[in-house]
Amino acid sequence: MSKNLSLAVAFVLTALAFTQQAQAIPNNGAAGAKVLELLAICLKKLKGLAKVRLTDARFIWTEPHSKRLKVALTIQKEVLTNTILEQTFEIEYLVQHGQCPDCARLAAKNTWKALVQVRQKVPHKRTFLFLEQLIIKHNAQKDTISIKEVRDGLDFFYSSRAHALKMQEFLAGVVPTKSKSSEQLISSDTHSNTANFKYTYSVEIVPICKDDLVCIPLKQARQFSNISPLTVCTRVGNSLQLMDPATLQTCEIPPTVYWRSPFEALASVTDLVEFTILDIEPDRSRTRGKYLMADAQVAVSGAFKSSKAGDLDDSMMDYEGVGATSMIYHTRTHLGAILQPGDSAMGYHLTSANFNSDAFADVPTHFIPDVILVKKAYPNRRKKSKARNWKLRSMAKEAGEEGETSSARGAIGRMGGRDAKKVEEDYELFLRDLEEDPEMRAAVNLYKAADVKMGDEEKDGKKTKKKVQYAMEVDEAAGPSHDGADHGHEETDFPEVRLEELLEEFDEMTLNTGDDDHVEQP
């Protein structure tokens, strides 16, 4: 810290010391050491003091709020042979507040030393929503001075290059990435041979997410233990884990191997279709971890509902027509341990899909199944407007940040405009993934939410129950139906978030300082 700041900090201690002893400096304790340190700083400010002999120096009491310090000095100097002249005089100092160079750099806008640009070229924000929770859990954002949202990711600004390198290493440990760096010369001093640089680190995340359908090129599939080209991404950590649902064969793809010959996902979770399990036959002899091989008969959800031909809409997809929905598909799935006849599951309907991919076009037709099931669905539970008893934290956002157009939540969703609704949908899907995946839930911190009562809101002149999703609204497809139809009983195997998994909001709690220990007994 600068000397001016030291003066400002020690001013209160000085006033307190001289309130008790007007002209004496305490020679013991922390207060005395601070006063002596302040006196030494004041004496160093004087010019020409080295030419005389200083015999005495003491503070003179001043008003604590005057921002003034007075020092009485006694000096001696030999003017003639065996003749010494002694003089005492007062010096007045003005206390001014100041900042150290690092604090001044933080207070000024658009001043940063290093920048980490995190990007992922996917049409959703679910990866960054999960990454935000990992950063909060490991407190990796403590050295960040500012966060800015851009189109395909986030920018993290730092006042030190070491802090940016630490964030880069953290990202490489939790998601598959590739990085490159650059530096820009700001100023240089040829006399002292020093230079001032700004450093930028570009971090790109693999554009494949959990539950995505991936079509590996045939040549690369042979290198990955001769796995089937059509796979499902089951886990994303510091590497990708792909699984063939028909054989339970898996392969681990490190980021270095992926970026050597990258490939993109064939379809994402937004392309999932809901299917109804008609029959399933598990094969207990073929298991891998929590997955169990099974043969299943499925049909598109709602295929056997009675409907008139005139009720069909022209905007329906191909698989929503009468001819396609009445078909029964046979497929092999890795979800034999959790699926039962009558359950619903989300999967990719390859029969009615059209992919613009050279790798998919090279796959032999007999290797392409009609349906690939990805995860179990809970439609009856989703139709109930039940508030969650848990919530997530968000990284604090800086007010008035450049490019910020809305007061949305945390680091994700600041752009506003048309992107706001898309971020809300992604956030709701992310919350559902946390509910349905205990392994994913274990990687983040969940906090207890306050008791929220379902309020009434007026819609079209009628009062309906307000949907509470903690800053998120459920889409109409997932909301309660207004036609009074019975949607069946709630699924008994829905993975509830247990109370033991939730943490307390310690920021909102206050700890007693011990003053309440002496309480009078009635």
User: So how many helices?
Assistant: 12
Largest sheet: 5 strands, mixed
Indicate the overall shape: elongated
> What amount of the residues lies in strands?
25-35%
Helix and strand arrangement:
Elements: H1 3-20, H2 29-44, E1 53-60, E2 68-80, E3 83-94, H3 101-107, E4 114-119, H4 126-137, E5 146-150, E6 153-158, H5 161-174, E7 177-189, E8 194-205, E9 213-215, H6 218-223, E10 230-236, E11 240-244, E12 249-253, H7 255-260, E13 265-267, E14 273-288, E15 291-300, H8 322-325, E16 329-333, E17 344-349, H9 358-361, E18 371-377, H10 379-382, E19 390-391, H11 419-436, H12 438-442, E20 446-448, E21 456-459, E22 462-465, E23 502-503
Parallel strand pairs: 4-8, 20-23
Antiparallel strand pairs: 1-2, 2-3, 4-6, 5-6, 7-8, 9-10, 9-13, 10-11, 11-12, 14-15, 14-17, 15-16, 17-18, 19-20, 21-22
Helix pairs in contact: 1-2
Short key terms for the protein model shown above:
522 residues, alpha+beta, 5-stranded mixed sheet, 5-stranded antiparallel sheet, 30% strand, disordered N terminus, disordered C terminus, transport, protein transport, ribosomal large subunit binding, OB_NMD3
Describe the structure.
- 22% of the residues lie in helices and 30% in strands.
- With 522 residues, the protein is α+β, with helices and mostly antiparallel strands.
- It has twelve helices and 23 strands.
- The two termini are 52 Å apart.
- Residues 37-205 form the Nmd3 N-terminal domain.
- InterPro entries: Nmd3 (IPR039768), Nmd3_N (IPR007064), NMD_SH3 (IPR048899), OB_NMD3 (IPR048898).
- Belongs to the NMD3 family.
